[in-house]
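Consider this pair:
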Amino acid sequence: MEATPHRSVLAELPMNLWFRLIWLLLTTRFRPSLALPAEASVLPFRVWPHDLDISLHMNNGRYWSLMDLGRLDLMLRSGLWRAVLRHRWLPVVNAGTIRFRREMRLFRPFRVETTILCWSEAWLVMQHRMLMRGRDGGEIVAAVALVRAALYDKKARAYVPVARLLGEIGIEARSPEPSPEVAAFLASEDAMRNAAASERQDFSEA
């Protein structure tokens, strides 16, 4: 299956996020390994001044960048990174949707939780949740996102089959059934892809 990759924004991180990336790489060895696809990555962070927008809460774009780190953490702590480096696979995302529920203000501690929900032959559907504690100690979901992610083999010009990437870490598993919200997300992406294809066809015929 030929495909054109969509690069992860990790390749274009602004300088102030490189410090978080370096922290992640340096501390990975001290955190327990993750057994995919069942176990989730949970990363602790805090809202710093460079995360804010003009409304003095976390910039919407920053959520996506931090979620990139969650996916990287899954890859590192599952051991999948070895195969990624060996085969020179490229982590990519081609679709995502997010719902913002609560703002995150300066110096607020929060966590990024990253989970694999289900998968197809070549794509993983992952959920990211931004979690923080309320004044009563209860958990607050500040934002929740769904992304469709994969590994791209530049040499083969194709996405790596999920069965193969799981096999690289000794896992054989069957995908759970998509939940209603995941099915709606995938259906929306299919509709947008079909609309884009129709627009290209109309343009070529003009």
